[in-house]
Amino acid sequence: MARPTVRILSRYLLRQHLAPLAFALAALTCFMLLNQVAKQFHNLAGKGLPAGVIAEMFALSIPFIVAMTLPMAVLVAVLHAFTRLGSDTEIVALKAAGVGVGRMLAPVLGGAALVSLLAFLWSDQVLPRSNHRLRTLLGDIQRKRPTLTLKEQVINEVLPNQFFLRAARIDQASNRLRDVTIYDLGDAERRRVITADSGRMAYTPEGRDLYLTLMDGDIREVRRADPAQFNRTFYTVNQIRVAAVGNTLVRTEQDTYRGDREMSVCAMDAVVADARADAAAARAQARTATTNELRRLAGLAALPAPAAAVSDSVTPPAPRGAYCRALALLARWLAPPAAHAQTPRPPPLPPKGRPAGAIPRPAELPAAVTSITPGIGLAEEQRARTARQRAAMYEVEIQKKLAISAACLVFALVGVPVALRFPRGGTGLVLIASTIVFTVYYVGLIGGEELGDRLIVSPFFAMWTPNLIFLALGLVGLLLARRPGSSAHGSDWSDLRDLFRWPR
After folding, report:
1. CB neighbours of 463 closer than 8 A, spacing ≥ 6?
2. What mean pLDDT do residues 10-29 have?
3. Alpha-carbon distance 375 to 378, whole Å?
4. Helices (H) and strands (E) in the chain, counts
5. Are 240 and 110 in contact (CB under 8 A)?
6. How far is CA 399 from CA 73, 191, 265, 402, 404, in A?
7. Contacts from 437-442 at CB under 8 Å and sequence distance 24+?
């Protein structure tokens, strides 16, 4: 008779993880969001941004933070839940009832696998879109000029390094100016100093341009080409337009450029395929160039250069992999493809003197360049290496998405044996163990990304090495926890000291 599945126990163990998981995810996300606020404060100060724009910027930062903190929250939840079960002697009671470590671990790993799947979908579908919008928003904020405020008896910088204004009196209510001096350095070929007895300033309706109407003054001008000549022009009314000084945020509507962190796995996979094809073509051209140089020295005819693969079709390539094909099929179901008008092409005419379909003779092939080149093939090799680096950069990002998502499952596997070995560790164990694991993991992740981008390590091992290390440690810990006599017996921090004591 088959052993019945204890579903009540599985639900109970999963419920013990829900509250710590939600609390840890919210706390870690808020902490990292505050850190993001502190880092972006200098970009926001003095910009006069609306509250909605600031809230949008921080809201767009949350998807990236959640993608990084979700594996952390899983580890904290596992450590907290199992240390609490161990301190309440529930682990001892379960083992006494015949429930082994493997049976207790099964629902936890099942829940962690589900979280890993959700984390991957989050980082592949939500995160690239939020990163793209965040990058364009930050660029728009950077281009936004600070608020123009003019002060009396001070040389005010209206345009950076171009237009300066000084006024003895400024009436903020009527925008009237008295005793005005303007330094115009916008033209590199001339320098102008404009003075006026009085004036008035006004903005355009959209608030971007400043108009100055000056009364009773003169313009003093010196040209760089002829510094000995000095021009002075008197005027009664002088109108000056200063463009792009307003405090207006111009939002970018269309931005087609996307970096590696703004693309999905399927889009990056297409870029990797193109880069590999480019690298293969460059290597083939390098081999052909080297072979032709040797054949030329031997007095042989040069081989034809390999033709570059050019696609005449505007249809994008078919997605590779079951995941990408499933997404493409889902996209076709949700939204019909847009219709594209096609212009028929006439068939190519055969060359004169040769019937259609005839194979060109070797004598008719284009001749290769036979000049002696000291660095023959070096340009092609450099192009191939650049293409390999471009492919590696996107492959590293693909593996990074997969590795961080799988870290939810790996951290659950690591947290269970640690909590079973030190059930009385409490909050101190959760904080210390989590900090150690997070630090080692993310330092290894950053270092692996650098090595993978430089073609020193393969993209897979560059991103998956921290996962593999912690997976091995977790499996060893589970084997030790399953041994007879290794039940949770109320261990505390003194056992951690005994664990690293040298044998006598």
Report:
1. 396, 399, 400, 402, 403, 445, 448, 449, 452
2. 92
3. 6
4. 11, 6
5. no
6. 21, 57, 9, 5, 8
7. 437/75, 437/411, 437/470, 438/72, 438/75, 440/466, 441/71, 441/407, 441/466, 441/470
Q: Which helix (H) or strand (E) holds 46?
A: none
Give the number of other Cβ atoms within 10 Å of residue 430's Cβ.
Answer: 23
Q: Is 160 in contact with 180 (CB distance < 8 Å)?
A: no
In three-state secondary structure terms, 119 is helix
- 125 Cβ contact partners less than 8 Å away, ≥ 6 residues apart: 264
Write the secondary structure of 226-243 as one string of H (helix), E (strand) and C (coil): CCCCEEEEEEEEEEEEEC
Would you give the end-to-end CA distance of the chain in angstroms? 50
Quote the crossing angle between the two packed helices 51-87 and 426-453, to the nearest 10°. 120
Give the residue from 280, 264, 191 showing the smallest Cα distance to 227: 191
- Residue 336 is predicted with a pLDDT of 57
Determine contact, residues 86/420, Cβ cutoff 8 Å.
yes
Helices (H), 254-321: 265-297
In angstroms, the CA 271 to CA 294 distance is 35
Q: Strand 190-203's sheet: what is its strand order?
A: 156-159, 163-171, 176-184, 190-203, 210-223, 230-242
Element (H, E) at 214: strand 210-223
Prediction pTM value: 0.70
Would you say residue 10 has pLDDT above 90?
Answer: no
Rounded to an integer, the average pLDDT of 250-272 is 87
The radius of gyration of the chain's CA atoms, rounded to the nearest angstrom, is: 35
- What's the pLDDT tens digit per position in 35-94? 888 887 776 765 667 788 888 988 999 999 999 999 999 999 999 998 888 888 888 888
What is the sign of the dihedral through the CA atoms of 80, 86, 90 and 95?
Answer: positive
Give the residues across from 199 on adjacent strands: 177, 214
Cα separation, 233 vs 27, in Å, equals 67
Looking at 123-188, which runs of residues are DSSP E strands? 156-159, 163-171, 176-184
Domain positions in the chain are 7-144+398-497, 156-242
- Among 400, 269, 402, residue whose Cα is nearest residue 325: 269
CB atoms within 10 A of CB 504: 3
CA angle, residues 133, 137, 143, in degrees to nearest 5: 150
> According to the model, what pLDDT value does residue 259 have?
86
Looking at residue 454, the DSSP 8-state letter turns out to be: T
